[in-house]
């Protein structure tokens, strides 16, 4: 049986300037996206669709059994204040859904590599990158990479996992 990629132990910094280790979320499902705030192409739709998935998860699971993490890979521009401004466009509450960055470039590269996220900078301050929903299970393993355009399918997959004993309800 092939080993699932593991969420590496990294330091995250959120939109409030708080830092914590990724292991903080062990014991919970984590739905992740990778984005940057200056993106004018796919990122706004990616985060809007993340919001639509978030809205479809029963509130009793949010924060207790699953958290949402939007991870910026543009650490030079996406500081906590920028993330805080950007999150206002979505239902990011800073607790059950957080916008974060990985300040350490080696840790960021490790995370992107483990999850198969390809980020190619251009010469204009933009990035070409792949986009998806990444679901990490309670043990920290990446178990699903889902099409971000299929909101209902992603939400149904997550709710089914939570209802099959994945939730602590």
Distinctive features:
9 strands, 7-stranded mixed β-sheet, single chain, Glutaredoxin
Structural description of this entry:
This protein is of the alpha+beta class. It has one domain: Glutaredoxin. It has helices at 42-56, 80-87, 105-115, 151-166; strands spanning 11-14, 19-21, 29-35, 66-72, 97-101, 119-121, 127-129, 133-136, 142-146. The strands form two sheets. The chain has a seven-stranded mixed beta sheet with strand order 2-1-5-4-3-8-9, sandwiched between helices. It has a two-stranded antiparallel sheet with strand order 6-7. α1 links the parallel β3 (29-35) and β4. α1 packs parallel to α4. It is globular, with a radius of gyration of 15 Å. The model has no long low-confidence stretch (mean pLDDT 95).
Layout of secondary structure:
Blueprint (H helix, E strand, L loop, with lengths): L10 E4 L4 E3 L7 E7 L6 H15 L9 E7 L7 H8 L9 E5 L3 H11 L3 E3 L5 E3 L3 E4 L5 E5 L4 H16 L3
CATH C-level name: Alpha Beta
Distance between the termini: 31 Å
**Oligomeric nature of the chains:** single chain
N-to-C series of helices and strands: EEEHEHEHEEEEH
Largest sheet: 7 strands, mixed
The fourth-level CATH homologous superfamily is Glutaredoxin
Mean pLDDT: 95
CATH-defined topology = Glutaredoxin
Strand composition percent: 15-25%
Number of DSSP E strands: 9
Per CATH, the architecture is 3-Layer(aba) Sandwich
Strand order, sheet with most strands: 2-1-5-4-3-8-9
Kindly provide the radius of gyration, computed on alpha-carbon positions and rounded to a whole number of angstroms.
15 Å
Low-confidence stretches: none
Q: Please state the structural category.
A: alpha+beta
Helical element count?
Answer: 4
Shape: globular
State the share of residues found in helices, binned by percent. 25-40%
């Amino acid at each position: 049986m092939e080993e699932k990629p593991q969420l590496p132990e990294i330091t995250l910094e959120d939109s409030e300037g708080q830092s914590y280790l990724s292991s903080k979320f062990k014991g919970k499902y984590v739905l992740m996206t990778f984005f940057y705030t200056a993106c004018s192409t796919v990122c706004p739709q990616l985060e809007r669709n993340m919001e639509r998935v978030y809205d479809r998860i029963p509130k009793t699971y949010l924060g207790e059994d699953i958290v949402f993490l939007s991870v910026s890979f543009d650490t030079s521009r996406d500081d906590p204040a920028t993330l805080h401004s950007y999150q206002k466009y979505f239902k990011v509450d800073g607790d059950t859904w957080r916008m974060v960055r990985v300040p350490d470039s080696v840790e960021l590269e490790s995370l992107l590599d483990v999850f198969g996220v390809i980020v190619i900078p251009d010469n204009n301050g933009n990035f070409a990158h792949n986009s998806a929903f990444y679901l990490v299970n309670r043990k920290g393993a990446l178990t699903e990479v889902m099409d971000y355009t299929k909101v209902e399918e992603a939400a149904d997959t997550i709710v089914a996992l939570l209802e099959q004993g994945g939730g602590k309800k």
